[in-house]
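Issue: ligand-bound run for SN-glycerol-1-phosphate - logging full I/O for the record.

Environment: standard queue, default settings, no custom constraints.

Inputs:
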Amino acid sequence: MNAVIYPSLLNKKAQGKKSFAVLIDPDKVNKQKLQELIALSLDAQVDYFLVGGSLVISNHLDECIQQLKQNSSIPVLLFPGSPSQVSKYADALLYLSLISGRNPELLIGQHVVSAPFVKQSGLEIIPTGYIVVDGGAPTTVSYISNAAPIPSDKDDIAMCTAMAGEMLGMKLIYMDAGSGAKTPITENMIQSVAANIDIPLIVGGGIVQPEKAYLNCKAGADVIVVGNAIEKDASLIKELSAAVHNVPISFK
Ligand code: 1GP
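Outputs:
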């Protein structure tokens, strides 16, 4: 299959353009809510939808993605909490390996078990080094992963983890303080990581303020992901997206 999403991420990075992604947890939206999010996202020129969650309890992942695809041209990236969260209707799959943890199941075990199924999906697969950073409170991801997050002030550990991920062949790094984190990842940590890798850097977890999204991008994040804050107040999409898109173009 032709890769489309990853080249577009690389292209935007080369041009110094920042992207904004809305995270949708299929468990937390109904058809009507999703339609509202789509309209707001189109209006705000959101770059990507990420779909997934640490737990997906309901059974309407396919339905949710089909609705997104039928009603907008915004690319849909799967951000799966488990191998069952794969849908052929998406545009790409963030193929996550939890490189900040030492749980072999989330580094490689679940990938082995689901490999034929994932390959058969025909999705564009984007190998992603997933780095979980302490967000000030236990989040679903820190509990479910059964792996210690990187302490929020250990910039060097995050940096070395991301560098190792890149050298192992990961195409993206996703740094996450966890959904609803009390304290999002610091700009210092983002800066340390971004300065030492060449692949695109996604940052998420606990981002509420447009100002924070802006500063994260200035520090080196290429894509900002927000879920929780938008679930509470969907009108934030516009301000968050504008903040990310207003970051002056910068080249590394
Ligand atoms: C969580 O990075 C995402 O995995 C987004 O976090 O829901 O806190 O915005 P929030």
